[in-house]
Amino acid sequence: xxxxxxIFDIKERTFQFxxxxxxxxxxxxTKRAENYVLGxxxxxxxxxxxxxxxxxxxxxxxxxxxxxxxxxxKEARETHHxxxxxxxxxxxxxxxxxxxxxxxxxxKNILGAIVVKLKNKNRDKE
Length: 126
What we know:
Elements: H1 10-27, H2 33-57, H3 62-88, H4 94-125
Helix pairs in contact: 1-2, 1-4, 2-3, 3-4
């Protein structure tokens, strides 16, 4: 994962994160059972964050839009967990591991702020 400038559009940022997750999975020695199992977990949850953000744009209602971002937040939290576990067990190491865990942390926090803001805005309308 090369050092790059931060992207501020959440859909683009989560798309790039998905690319990084796919790259990470490809780099794992998936012949080892634990690498395969944890790798598949992070691959599934890490790539679904962006797809949920993209789906939110086509939400059928305001509630659906909020729901999709809430699911994206849940997936981001799960991904952050798996990545931390992979670091703690030395499955991934070095600067690349540090950067992808940091990015998952930042995305999780951004999505959390978006969800809180959307829910508060929705409550104000009621």
